[in-house]
Every structure is written in structure tokens, then in C-alpha cells.
Design a protein that fits this description.
Helix content: 55-70%
Distance between the termini: 55 Å
Order of helices and strands: HHHHHHHH
Largest sheet: none
Radius of gyration: 18 Å
Strand content: under 5%
Number of helices: 8
């Protein structure tokens, strides 16, 4: 009987972890789409972020001028040879990660290009987005976009991600 109970506890813990990751993904997707002025789509967030253009647009909204090199747009990438397009996508992702580091995100919240581009570690990419959202509201002067999670009490305005999404929804 104890063995069945232990198996149930392990299965329950795995289900709880899967639910937590799904919630983090949904929050990150809503936050990224709101800031980057992109619609929520059925396409998985990971696929939409792979080119790096959406991440760079996001960071430009957070702190204009934080992306130093010209970013190849999705339209430009579509016209390039596959090898060149892949190199540009990796460059875009690298610029985003470098800008996150310059913004002050701790090393534990940064990822390497392969984590996103080659789908090696999606959880760290989500951790990065959540870390960026938190950093924006605490350490980026003049940023008043949507937030994920708990806001500092001395900050006024906003209203959280749910309020931001409700305000952005068509009437």
C-alpha cells in the first residue's frame, strides 16, 4: 500500500510541475505579445521566438536603444538562404541575451542561443522572460508596461498582466 501511495505522490508532483510550467508559459506569452505588439496566436511561443526578432522588439519596447545591431526581420529572414537565415536568427537571439545581461539580469536568468534555437532548454528561456518582466518594473526607469507576478507596493499604476490584457482586448 505504501508503494502505491509513493507512486501517487510522484505522479502528483509531476502533474503539479507540468501545470506550473504551462502557467508560466501562458504568462510569458501574453507579456511578450503585449509588449511586442504582436497578436496571441495558435503557433507555439517557442517557434515565434526562434528568429529572435520578437525578442529584440520586446527589448526595444522595454529600453529603447538596447539592441545595438540592425535586427533581421522575419520578412528578411524568409528571403535568405537557409544557412544565412539561421546565422541571422542566432545573431538576433544573441543580441537579445547580451542586452538582457546589460540590463542587469543575473547569469542564472540568461540562456545560450542553443537553448531557444535548438530547443535545448525551454524552461530557462521562460525563466529569462519572467526575470526580464520582473527587472523591468524594478530597475528600468520609465517602464510602465504589463507585469508578471507581484508588483512592488510602492509602485503605482499598471494593474498586472490580467488588467493589461483586458485593456488590450478589442471591445
Amino acid at each position: 500500500m505504501k508503494e502505491k501511495e509513493e507512486i501517487w505522490k510522484i505522479e502528483q508532483a509531476e502533474a503539479d510541475e507540468a501545470e506550473r510550467v504551462l502557467k508560466e508559459k501562458e504568462q510569458a506569452e501574453a507579456w511578450v505579445c503585449l509588449l511586442a505588439d504582436r497578436p496571441l496566436e495558435a503557433t507555439p511561443l517557442q517557434e515565434r521566438l526562434k528568429s529572435g526578432t520578437m525578442l529584440c522588439a520586446l527589448l526595444e519596447k522595454v529600453k529603447p536603444g538596447s539592441i545595438k545591431l540592425k535586427v533581421a526581420s522575419d520578412e528578411q529572414l524568409a528571403t535568405m538562404a537557409p544557412n544565412r537565415a539561421n546565422a541571422k536568427m542566432r545573431e538576433n537571439i544573441g543580441q537579445y541575451v547580451d542586452a538582457c545581461a546589460a540590463l542587469g539580469l543575473p547569469q542564472r536568468e540568461l540562456f545560450i542561443t542553443a537553448d531557444l534555437f535548438e530547443d535545448k532548454n525551454w524552461k530557462i528561456v521562460l525563466k529569462n522572460i519572467h526575470g526580464l518582466a520582473r527587472r523591468c518594473h524594478y530597475d528600468v526607469p520609465g517602464f510602465w508596461g504589463p507585469n508578471i507576478g507581484i508588483r512592488k507596493k510602492n509602485r503605482t499604476g499598471g494593474g498586472g498582466l490580467a488588467a493589461s490584457m483586458a485593456a488590450a482586448a478589442p471591445v
